[in-house]
Design brief:
Blueprint lengths: L5 E2 L9 H10 L18 H18 L5 E7 L1 H13 L7 E6 L2 H10 L4 E7 L22 E5 L1 E2 L4 E2 L11 E4 L16 E5 L9 E7 L16 H6 L9 H16 L2 H21 L4 E3 L10 E6 L5 H10 L2 E2 L10 E4 L6 H18 L1
Parallel strand pairs: 1-13, 3-4, 3-5, 5-8, 8-9
Antiparallel strand pairs: 2-10, 6-7, 9-10, 11-12, 12-14
Helix pairs in contact: 1-6, 2-6, 3-4, 7-9
Bound molecules: pyridoxal-5'-phosphate.
Length: about 375
């Protein structure tokens, strides 16, 4: 494995090495079939067993209540920006939704909803360049709205919700693309959550949707068949040909999460990893954290160099040290270390050592 680097990319992100090795071993010959998992029918019993195992592991790991469906939906997370309004707006006579605008993806989700109905932005972090989750206490949520939408972890800005707002009778929908299964969550707080696979679940292009059963089946009549969650629920996500390889990889990633001790153990490790970096940043004048401490993400650590002119040199030398894809998003600049479940503590320690050394040589 000497040729593997530590990949801090925001997504598609690194997958556990054990998972990659297993996929490689099974690639040409899945379970003695003499064919790759990519070459067998999505309707075969062998593939059925993979989907069933994914369902089973998701329920076991997440504690998802029984009245929630597990759906595997085409198009990654942003396709759900369209699918959610199309599936949920029919519940409200006003065709109205509420959006918490806490970052770039939250904004894109809100813009998509505006194509289908009235949107009220109930909180907006733009004034402080999304460096924190806005205070939402005291907001009166319009109880006539069909749903409220938030982004649980803001991948670009490195912020996250620590506590979710109580929206009363209005179902709360969360885009959990960048922190799904990284921490314990009480899913009964949500009408639905969704996540693109490419950070904590597997390869890109597919989204996991966990949705309360009673919210399924109200899609607007013009909803394309393959964006109607009822079609997914009624066909075990197999109305047409699913991305079979991504589902297979999801199964391996979920098995790995279980072997690691489940979400509780992963959460503990994730917090330790993030603390290594935040402690270093807080103890130095050379590095400046981008997010306000109370809103800091455990998955995406964003920071700048006090002397911004050194950022290019930092990235170049990091790469020479096998620390890959640390460039911050252009909206924030600086550095972003994405440290999802698959990033080992050793990778974060390697980054921390590099940062200390870089500060010594350039501070
Ligand atoms: C929070 C969040 N939502 C949505 C997306 C977009 O995901 P996709 O490319 O699968 O549409 C991303 C991508 O990184 C993200 O971080």
């Amino acid at each position: 494995m000497s040729s593997r680097i530590y990949n801090f990319g925001a997504g598609p992100a690194m997958l556990p090495t054990e998972v990659m090795i297993k996929a490689q071993q099974e690639f040409l010959d899945y379970k003695g079939m003499g064919a790759s998992v990519m070459e067998i029918s999505h309707r075969s019993k062998d593939f059925d067993a993979i989907v069933d195992r994914c369902d089973e592991l998701i329920r076991e790991l997440s504690g998802l209540p029984d009245n929630y469906k597990i759906l595997y939906v085409h198009g990654g997370a942003r396709m759900q920006f369209s699918a959610m309004p199309m599936n949920l707006l029919g519940r409200s006579a006003k065709r109205k939704s509420l959006y918490f605008e806490t970052g770039n993806f939250a904004k894109l989700a809100r813009k998509e909803a505006e194509r289908y109905g009235e949107v009220e932005i109930v909180a907006n972090g733009e004034a402080t360049n999304f460096d924190r989750i806005p205070d939402v206490s005291g907001i009166e949520f319009d109880q006539q709205a069909a749903y409220a939408h938030l982004t649980s972890n803001n991948t670009i800005y490195g912020t996250r919700w620590n506590e979710y707002p109580d929206t009363g009778e209005v179902p709360l929908i969360a885009d959990m693309t960048s922190d799904i299964f990284s921490r314990e969550v009480d899913y009964s707080q949500f009408g639905a959550v969704y996540a693109g696979f490419q950070k904590n679940l597997g390869p890109s292009g597919v989204a996991l949707v966990l949705m309360r059963e009673d919210l399924i089946g109200n899609a607007m009549p013009e909803t394309p068949t393959l964006l109607d969650y009822k079609v997914y629920a009624d066909n075990h996500s197999m109305a047409n040909t699913i991305n079979t390889f991504a589902i297979y990889m999801l199964m391996l990633v979920l098995e790995w999460k279980k072997e690691q001790g489940g979400i509780v153990a992963l959460q503990k490790r994730n917090e330790e990893k993030a603390q290594i970096l935040y402690r270093l940043i807080d103890g130095s004048d050379f590095y400046l954290g981008a997010a306000q401490p109370e809103s800091r993400s455990v998955m995406n650590v964003t920071f700048n160099l006090a002397n911004t002119e050194l950022a290019g040199k930092f990235l170049e030398e990091a790469l020479q040290n096998d620390l890959y894809a640390l460039k911050g998003h252009r909206a924030v600049g600086g550095i972003r270390a994405s440290i999802y479940n698959a990033m080992p503590v050793a990778g974060v320690e390697a980054l921390a050592s590099f940062m200390q050394e870089f500060e010594r040589s350039n501070g």
